[in-house]
Protein backbone atom coordinates (compact mmCIF):
# COMPACT_ATOMS: atom_id res chain seq x y z
CA UNK A 1 0.00 0.00 0.00
CA UNK A 2 1.15 3.54 -0.74
CA UNK A 3 1.06 6.22 1.98
CA UNK A 4 -1.96 7.72 0.20
CA UNK A 5 -3.81 4.40 0.12
CA UNK A 6 -3.12 3.87 3.81
CA UNK A 7 -4.36 7.38 4.64
CA UNK A 8 -7.58 6.79 2.70
CA UNK A 9 -8.26 3.65 4.71
CA UNK A 10 -7.75 5.23 8.16
CA UNK A 11 -11.46 5.27 8.96
CA UNK A 12 -11.46 2.95 11.97
CA UNK A 13 -14.06 0.67 10.34
CA UNK A 14 -13.60 -3.04 10.94
CA UNK A 15 -13.80 -5.11 7.77
CA UNK A 16 -13.75 -8.90 7.33
CA UNK A 17 -10.38 -10.34 6.41
CA UNK A 18 -11.15 -14.02 6.40
CA UNK A 19 -13.18 -16.28 8.64
CA UNK A 20 -13.25 -14.90 12.16
CA UNK A 21 -10.80 -12.08 11.41
CA UNK A 22 -11.60 -8.35 11.16
CA UNK A 23 -9.16 -5.51 10.47
CA UNK A 24 -9.13 -1.73 10.70
CA UNK A 25 -6.76 1.21 10.33
CA UNK A 26 -7.12 3.53 13.32
CA UNK A 27 -8.26 7.10 12.57
CA UNK A 28 -5.64 9.82 13.08
CA UNK A 29 -4.97 13.34 11.77
CA UNK A 30 -1.21 12.73 12.03
CA UNK A 31 1.00 11.57 9.16
CA UNK A 32 3.12 9.42 11.48
CA UNK A 33 1.54 6.94 13.90
CA UNK A 34 3.57 4.47 15.95
CA UNK A 35 3.85 2.39 19.17
CA UNK A 36 0.26 1.21 19.59
CA UNK A 37 -0.91 -0.14 22.94
CA UNK A 38 -4.15 -2.02 23.70
CA UNK A 39 -6.04 -2.41 26.96
CA UNK A 40 -9.49 -3.62 28.00
CA UNK A 41 -11.44 -1.18 30.18
CA UNK A 42 -14.10 -1.87 32.81
CA UNK A 43 -17.30 -2.59 30.87
CA UNK A 44 -15.51 -4.33 27.99
CA UNK A 45 -14.42 -1.43 25.76
CA UNK A 46 -10.98 -1.73 24.14
CA UNK A 47 -8.75 1.34 24.07
CA UNK A 48 -5.85 1.78 21.66
CA UNK A 49 -3.26 4.48 22.41
CA UNK A 50 -0.24 5.43 20.30
CA UNK A 51 1.89 8.43 19.44
CA UNK A 52 1.43 10.55 16.33
CA UNK A 53 2.75 13.67 14.66
CA UNK A 54 5.16 14.45 11.85
CA UNK A 55 8.33 12.52 12.82
CA UNK A 56 9.42 10.63 15.94
CA UNK A 57 11.43 12.98 18.13
CA UNK A 58 9.73 16.14 16.88
CA UNK A 59 7.86 18.24 19.44
CA UNK A 60 4.54 17.82 17.60
CA UNK A 61 4.56 14.10 18.47
CA UNK A 62 1.82 13.53 21.07
CA UNK A 63 -0.33 10.78 22.51
CA UNK A 64 -3.49 9.79 20.61
CA UNK A 65 -6.18 7.27 21.51
CA UNK A 66 -9.43 5.75 20.27
CA UNK A 67 -12.08 3.44 21.75
CA UNK A 68 -13.79 0.35 20.37
CA UNK A 69 -17.03 -0.16 22.29
CA UNK A 70 -18.39 -3.68 22.89
CA UNK A 71 -20.09 -4.95 19.73
CA UNK A 72 -19.06 -1.91 17.69
CA UNK A 73 -17.99 -2.22 14.06
CA UNK A 74 -15.94 0.99 14.09
CA UNK A 75 -13.39 2.66 16.33
CA UNK A 76 -14.46 5.97 17.86
CA UNK A 77 -12.98 9.38 17.04
CA UNK A 78 -9.33 9.97 17.81
CA UNK A 79 -8.51 11.94 20.97
CA UNK A 80 -5.32 13.88 21.68
CA UNK A 81 -4.21 13.17 25.24
CA UNK A 82 -0.96 15.12 25.64
CA UNK A 83 -0.07 18.71 24.85
CA UNK A 84 3.57 19.46 25.71
CA UNK A 85 4.81 21.84 22.97
CA UNK A 86 8.46 21.38 23.86
CA UNK A 87 8.71 17.60 24.02
CA UNK A 88 8.17 14.53 21.87
CA UNK A 89 5.61 12.47 23.81
CA UNK A 90 5.84 8.74 23.12
CA UNK A 91 5.21 5.14 24.23
CA UNK A 92 1.78 5.32 25.89
CA UNK A 93 0.66 2.71 28.42
CA UNK A 94 -2.95 2.51 29.67
CA UNK A 95 -3.61 1.13 33.16
CA UNK A 96 -7.07 0.29 34.51
CA UNK A 97 -6.46 0.40 38.27
CA UNK A 98 -8.30 -1.86 40.71
CA UNK A 99 -10.35 1.10 42.00
CA UNK A 100 -11.83 1.69 38.52
CA UNK A 101 -9.75 4.71 37.61
CA UNK A 102 -7.94 4.64 34.25
CA UNK A 103 -4.43 6.07 33.96
CA UNK A 104 -2.18 7.05 31.06
CA UNK A 105 1.59 6.74 31.42
CA UNK A 106 3.84 8.04 28.64
CA UNK A 107 7.31 9.38 27.93
CA UNK A 108 8.29 13.00 27.19
CA UNK A 109 11.68 13.93 25.76
CA UNK A 110 13.40 16.76 23.92
CA UNK A 111 14.22 15.76 20.32
CA UNK A 112 16.23 12.51 20.25
CA UNK A 113 17.61 12.86 23.77
CA UNK A 114 16.11 9.72 25.27
CA UNK A 115 18.52 9.93 28.21
CA UNK A 116 16.74 13.14 29.27
CA UNK A 117 13.26 11.61 29.03
CA UNK A 118 10.70 11.82 31.83
CA UNK A 119 7.55 9.76 32.44
CA UNK A 120 4.21 11.50 32.87
CA UNK A 121 1.12 10.02 34.54
CA UNK A 122 -2.38 11.41 33.89
CA UNK A 123 -5.88 10.24 34.78
CA UNK A 124 -8.30 9.60 31.91
CA UNK A 125 -12.01 10.33 31.90
CA UNK A 126 -14.14 8.37 29.42
CA UNK A 127 -17.74 8.95 28.36
CA UNK A 128 -18.99 6.90 25.43
CA UNK A 129 -16.22 7.19 22.84
CA UNK A 130 -14.96 10.52 24.26
CA UNK A 131 -11.57 10.31 26.01
CA UNK A 132 -9.99 13.17 27.96
CA UNK A 133 -6.79 13.39 29.97
CA UNK A 134 -6.14 15.49 33.05
CA UNK A 135 -2.93 17.59 32.98
CA UNK A 136 -0.97 14.91 34.85
CA UNK A 137 2.47 15.09 36.43
CA UNK A 138 5.97 13.69 36.04
CA UNK A 139 6.91 10.66 38.13
CA UNK A 140 9.73 10.81 40.68
CA UNK A 141 11.94 8.59 38.54
CA UNK A 142 15.34 9.45 37.04
CA UNK A 143 15.62 11.09 33.65
CA UNK A 144 16.05 8.54 30.92
CA UNK A 145 13.30 6.23 32.21
CA UNK A 146 11.10 4.85 29.41
CA UNK A 147 7.83 2.88 29.33
CA UNK A 148 6.38 0.36 26.91
CA UNK A 149 4.76 -2.59 28.74
CA UNK A 150 1.70 -2.51 31.02
CA UNK A 151 1.63 -2.09 34.77
CA UNK A 152 0.83 -5.07 36.96
CA UNK A 153 -0.80 -5.21 40.37
CA UNK A 154 1.42 -7.08 42.85
CA UNK A 155 0.11 -9.59 45.40
CA UNK A 156 0.28 -6.93 48.15
CA UNK A 157 -1.65 -4.40 46.02
CA UNK A 158 1.38 -2.41 44.90
CA UNK A 159 1.85 -1.30 41.31
CA UNK A 160 4.70 -2.67 39.18
CA UNK A 161 5.79 -0.40 36.30
CA UNK A 162 8.27 -2.04 33.85
CA UNK A 163 10.91 0.40 32.61
CA UNK A 164 14.11 0.66 30.70
CA UNK A 165 16.71 3.28 31.51
CA UNK A 166 18.56 5.24 28.83
CA UNK A 167 21.78 5.67 30.80
CA UNK A 168 23.57 8.96 29.99
CA UNK A 169 27.24 9.16 29.10
CA UNK A 170 28.62 12.55 30.07
CA UNK A 171 29.42 14.69 27.02
CA UNK A 172 28.08 12.13 24.53
CA UNK A 173 24.89 11.60 22.54
CA UNK A 174 22.56 8.79 23.55
CA UNK A 175 22.79 5.77 21.23
CA UNK A 176 21.32 2.99 23.39
CA UNK A 177 24.73 1.54 24.20
CA UNK A 178 24.25 1.49 27.98
CA UNK A 179 20.49 0.97 28.27
CA UNK A 180 19.31 -1.37 31.02
CA UNK A 181 15.93 -2.57 32.29
CA UNK A 182 14.36 -1.84 35.65
CA UNK A 183 11.14 -2.21 37.62
CA UNK A 184 9.50 0.67 39.48
CA UNK A 185 7.23 -0.18 42.41
CA UNK A 186 4.62 2.11 43.96
CA UNK A 187 2.86 1.44 47.27
CA UNK A 188 0.74 4.62 47.13
CA UNK A 189 -1.06 4.38 43.77
CA UNK A 190 1.62 6.15 41.77
CA UNK A 191 2.44 9.04 44.12
CA UNK A 192 5.98 7.76 44.71
CA UNK A 193 8.14 5.05 43.19
CA UNK A 194 10.98 2.75 44.23
CA UNK A 195 13.36 1.96 41.36
CA UNK A 196 14.84 -1.55 41.08
CA UNK A 197 17.44 -1.88 38.26
CA UNK A 198 17.75 -5.38 36.80
CA UNK A 199 21.24 -6.80 37.13
CA UNK A 200 22.90 -8.08 33.98
CA UNK A 201 20.37 -6.43 31.66
CA UNK A 202 22.63 -4.11 29.62
CA UNK A 203 21.20 -4.08 26.08
CA UNK A 204 17.91 -5.67 27.22
CA UNK A 205 15.07 -3.14 27.06
CA UNK A 206 11.26 -2.95 26.91
CA UNK A 207 10.81 -5.56 29.69
CA UNK A 208 7.39 -7.19 29.53
CA UNK A 209 6.65 -9.11 32.77
CA UNK A 210 3.94 -11.78 33.00
CA UNK A 211 2.68 -14.07 35.77
CA UNK A 212 4.94 -17.13 35.79
CA UNK A 213 4.86 -20.61 37.24
CA UNK A 214 6.75 -19.44 40.33
CA UNK A 215 6.57 -15.65 40.36
CA UNK A 216 7.08 -13.56 37.23
CA UNK A 217 8.70 -14.06 33.84
CA UNK A 218 9.75 -11.18 31.54
CA UNK A 219 10.69 -10.87 27.87
CA UNK A 220 13.00 -8.22 26.39
CA UNK A 221 13.89 -6.44 23.18
CA UNK A 222 17.66 -6.41 22.50
CA UNK A 223 19.75 -3.46 21.38
CA UNK A 224 22.23 -5.89 19.78
CA UNK A 225 19.49 -7.21 17.45
CA UNK A 226 20.12 -10.87 18.17
CA UNK A 227 17.45 -12.64 20.26
CA UNK A 228 14.43 -12.01 22.42
CA UNK A 229 15.75 -12.40 25.98
CA UNK A 230 13.96 -13.82 29.02
CA UNK A 231 14.35 -13.45 32.80
CA UNK A 232 12.61 -14.94 35.82
CA UNK A 233 11.50 -12.83 38.76
CA UNK A 234 10.02 -13.09 42.22
CA UNK A 235 6.31 -12.44 42.68
CA UNK A 236 7.00 -9.04 44.31
CA UNK A 237 8.95 -7.84 41.24
CA UNK A 238 12.09 -7.10 43.27
CA UNK A 239 14.41 -9.99 42.41
CA UNK A 240 15.31 -11.07 38.88
CA UNK A 241 17.65 -13.48 37.18
CA UNK A 242 20.00 -12.15 34.53
CA UNK A 243 18.24 -12.16 31.12
CA UNK A 244 19.23 -14.93 28.71
CA UNK A 245 18.35 -15.63 25.05
CA UNK A 246 15.31 -17.53 23.85
CA UNK A 247 14.86 -19.24 20.49
CA UNK A 248 13.02 -16.16 19.17
CA UNK A 249 15.10 -13.72 17.14
CA UNK A 250 14.96 -9.94 17.68
CA UNK A 251 15.82 -7.01 15.43
CA UNK A 252 16.16 -4.28 18.09
CA UNK A 253 12.45 -3.56 17.80
CA UNK A 254 9.60 -3.80 20.27
CA UNK A 255 7.70 -7.00 21.06
CA UNK A 256 4.49 -7.81 22.93
CA UNK A 257 4.05 -10.65 25.40
CA UNK A 258 0.94 -11.85 27.24
CA UNK A 259 -0.31 -14.91 29.10
CA UNK A 260 -3.29 -16.45 27.28
CA UNK A 261 -6.31 -17.78 29.14
CA UNK A 262 -5.36 -21.32 28.07
CA UNK A 263 -1.99 -20.89 29.78
CA UNK A 264 0.49 -20.37 26.95
CA UNK A 265 2.88 -17.45 26.74
CA UNK A 266 2.21 -15.53 23.49
CA UNK A 267 4.84 -13.24 21.98
CA UNK A 268 4.19 -11.04 18.93
CA UNK A 269 7.40 -9.88 17.26
CA UNK A 270 9.59 -9.65 14.15
CA UNK A 271 11.70 -12.86 14.36
CA UNK A 272 14.69 -11.61 12.35
CA UNK A 273 18.09 -10.43 13.54
CA UNK A 274 21.29 -8.67 12.52
CA UNK A 275 22.93 -11.89 11.32
CA UNK A 276 20.21 -12.19 8.65
CA UNK A 277 20.47 -8.61 7.35
CA UNK A 278 22.95 -6.11 5.97
CA UNK A 279 20.59 -3.16 6.53
CA UNK A 280 21.97 -0.56 8.95
CA UNK A 281 21.26 3.02 9.92
CA UNK A 282 23.27 5.36 12.12
CA UNK A 283 20.71 5.72 14.89
CA UNK A 284 17.00 5.87 15.68
CA UNK A 285 16.96 9.67 15.30
CA UNK A 286 19.42 10.22 12.45
CA UNK A 287 16.82 12.20 10.44
CA UNK A 288 16.15 14.91 13.04
CA UNK A 289 19.15 17.05 12.14
CA UNK A 290 19.99 19.74 14.67
CA UNK A 291 23.24 21.19 15.95
CA UNK A 292 24.28 18.63 18.57
CA UNK A 293 28.03 18.29 18.03
CA UNK A 294 28.61 15.77 20.81
CA UNK A 295 30.18 12.46 19.78
CA UNK A 296 28.23 9.23 20.05
CA UNK A 297 28.44 7.44 23.37
CA UNK A 298 31.51 5.28 23.95
CA UNK A 299 30.39 1.63 23.93
CA UNK A 300 32.97 0.63 26.57
CA UNK A 301 31.17 -1.04 29.44
CA UNK A 302 27.99 -1.25 27.39
CA UNK A 303 26.97 -2.84 24.10
CA UNK A 304 27.05 -2.03 20.39
CA UNK A 305 23.47 -1.27 19.31
CA UNK A 306 22.34 -2.30 15.84
CA UNK A 307 19.74 -0.14 14.08
CA UNK A 308 18.04 -0.72 10.74
CA UNK A 309 17.40 -4.48 10.63
CA UNK A 310 14.14 -5.14 8.78
CA UNK A 311 10.92 -5.01 10.83
CA UNK A 312 8.97 -7.83 9.17
CA UNK A 313 7.51 -10.41 9.12
CA UNK A 314 5.19 -10.10 12.11
CA UNK A 315 4.77 -13.45 13.84
CA UNK A 316 2.72 -14.66 16.80
CA UNK A 317 4.70 -17.31 18.71
CA UNK A 318 3.31 -19.57 21.45
CA UNK A 319 5.12 -21.34 24.29
CA UNK A 320 3.89 -24.05 26.65
CA UNK A 321 7.08 -24.09 28.77
CA UNK A 322 7.02 -20.56 30.25
CA UNK A 323 8.83 -19.05 27.27
CA UNK A 324 11.80 -21.40 27.23
CA UNK A 325 10.88 -22.32 23.64
CA UNK A 326 8.34 -21.18 21.03
CA UNK A 327 7.65 -24.09 18.65
CA UNK A 328 4.20 -22.92 17.52
CA UNK A 329 4.26 -19.84 15.26
CA UNK A 330 1.61 -18.03 13.18
CA UNK A 331 2.14 -15.44 10.43
CA UNK A 332 0.22 -12.21 11.09
CA UNK A 333 1.66 -9.97 8.35
CA UNK A 334 4.57 -9.91 5.93
CA UNK A 335 6.42 -7.46 3.71
CA UNK A 336 9.91 -6.07 3.11
CA UNK A 337 10.06 -4.47 6.59
CA UNK A 338 12.38 -1.68 5.43
CA UNK A 339 13.05 0.77 8.28
CA UNK A 340 16.09 2.79 7.20
CA UNK A 341 13.92 5.92 7.32
CA UNK A 342 11.22 7.03 9.77
CA UNK A 343 9.56 9.15 7.07
CA UNK A 344 5.88 8.25 6.74
CA UNK A 345 5.14 10.08 3.47
CA UNK A 346 7.71 9.02 0.88
CA UNK A 347 6.90 5.29 0.88
CA UNK A 348 10.39 4.16 1.85
CA UNK A 349 9.39 2.89 5.28
CA UNK A 350 7.74 -0.55 5.04
CA UNK A 351 7.92 -1.75 8.63
CA UNK A 352 5.31 -3.94 10.35
CA UNK A 353 6.40 -3.31 13.89
CA UNK A 354 5.81 -2.30 17.51
CA UNK A 355 2.95 -4.74 18.06
CA UNK A 356 0.65 -5.17 21.00
CA UNK A 357 -1.53 -8.09 22.10
CA UNK A 358 -4.72 -8.24 24.15
CA UNK A 359 -7.00 -11.16 24.97
CA UNK A 360 -10.39 -9.80 26.03
CA UNK A 361 -12.92 -11.32 28.39
CA UNK A 362 -15.02 -12.61 25.48
CA UNK A 363 -12.12 -14.78 24.28
CA UNK A 364 -11.22 -12.61 21.27
CA UNK A 365 -7.59 -11.82 20.53
CA UNK A 366 -6.79 -8.22 19.55
CA UNK A 367 -3.54 -7.25 17.84
CA UNK A 368 -2.22 -3.90 16.70
CA UNK A 369 0.97 -2.86 14.96
CA UNK A 370 2.62 -0.01 13.07
CA UNK A 371 1.94 -0.12 9.32
CA UNK A 372 4.77 1.66 7.44
CA UNK A 373 4.95 4.38 10.14
CA UNK A 374 1.76 5.79 8.59
CA UNK A 375 -1.00 4.07 10.56
CA UNK A 376 -1.85 1.77 13.44
CA UNK A 377 -3.45 -1.42 12.14
CA UNK A 378 -5.80 -3.41 14.36
CA UNK A 379 -6.89 -7.04 14.01
CA UNK A 380 -9.71 -8.67 15.97
CA UNK A 381 -9.55 -12.47 15.93
CA UNK A 382 -12.63 -14.39 17.07
CA UNK A 383 -12.23 -17.32 19.46
CA UNK A 384 -10.84 -20.27 17.52
CA UNK A 385 -8.32 -18.00 15.77
CA UNK A 386 -5.61 -20.70 15.80
CA UNK A 387 -7.41 -22.39 12.92
CA UNK A 388 -7.55 -19.17 10.89
CA UNK A 389 -3.96 -17.84 10.95
CA UNK A 390 -1.40 -19.43 8.60
CA UNK A 391 1.61 -21.14 10.13
CA UNK A 392 4.88 -19.25 10.00
TrEMBL record:
Pfam families in the cross-refs: BNR_2
Residue ranges of every copy of the Sialidase domain listed in the record: 45-367
Highest taxon listed in the record's lineage: Bacteria
Listed CDD domains: Sialidase_non-viral
The protein's name in its UniProt record: Exo-alpha-sialidase
Organism of provenance: Mangrovicoccus algicola
